[in-house]
Write a structure and sequence with these properties.
Elements lengths: L3 E4 L12 E4 L8 E4 L6 E3 L7 E9 L7 E7 L3 E8 L2 E8 L2 E6 L7 E10 L6 E6 L2 E7 L9 E6 L6 E7 L14 E6 L2 E2 L5 E2 L6 E6 L1 H8 L4 E9 L11 E7 L4 E8 L8 E10 L7 E7 L3
Length: about 300
Amino acid sequence: MSFKYINPGYAELLDVSGGTTIADAAKSKTGVSFWQPTQGKGINIAEIPTELYGKFDVYLPSGTGMDISVDITFCGYCGVHIRGYSREWTIYGYYAGSSYFSNKTQVIYDAVNTIWFNAKPSDVGDYLTIKANGVEIGKKTGISFNTTSRYIEIYSSSRLAPISNLILSDTEIHPREQVVTLPVKATETTMTANGDGSYTASAANQQIMQSVDVDSLLAEYGEDSEIRGISLMGNPAYRTAEGLAYLTALEDDGMNVTEIGTSEAKQNTANIVRQGYAKNIKLPALAGYKFGWKAGVDS
């Protein structure tokens, strides 16, 4: 499966501590957003992609008078750099620590701004291109990826400019692609229900599987809508002892059950687990699917 990272706006889904999740519907289309103040940190990736697409929302306030930076970068600081300085925001195309193009006119103040980018290094036609609120603001040719970098920086220096609706992939991200929370239709589990919406596993291989309320999604988005990726999230997901320390994400398409990946359930009660992957199907086809997690003792 292709690399796909999906984050509605939870700091806990990053591979770095110290970020803060903000629940404010006015600053995010998903209802949650985050700021992460440690530069050079974000998410760790298993392999260096040959191409990187990214899309995210960021709330940009007016009149702060502060020096604020928001960065989504990779391949030796290649990507998007947004800076608020002297009450003005500028979006930069960033490569090798330098800004190669910039734009101020496409920024919408006191609102959620949508940024899309594509970094594609190759022998011919290599480039970085960025769109802000649907308009291309620039393109830089002649880039290359830093072959030693196995993280993507996701950084915001202030809670005034939180990030949300974040999608990263080594395959194409459509400019209109967005993160949508899938409503649950039914839950099947061999775990113990705690009565508060949470479940406890007491033995290896116990599972929780959930089907999607596709009818409500069709009413809102229409039958021509496409699913481009799935992110399974347990929030919170933690262990109470040393035994069952891992959770494996599962996809059941009605015929086969596929193990997507394994995450560690740490003892921190605020811990979140996630596994994301690319998936290309029409929305109506989702009616036959179930998604969930299986408890295990090792990775």
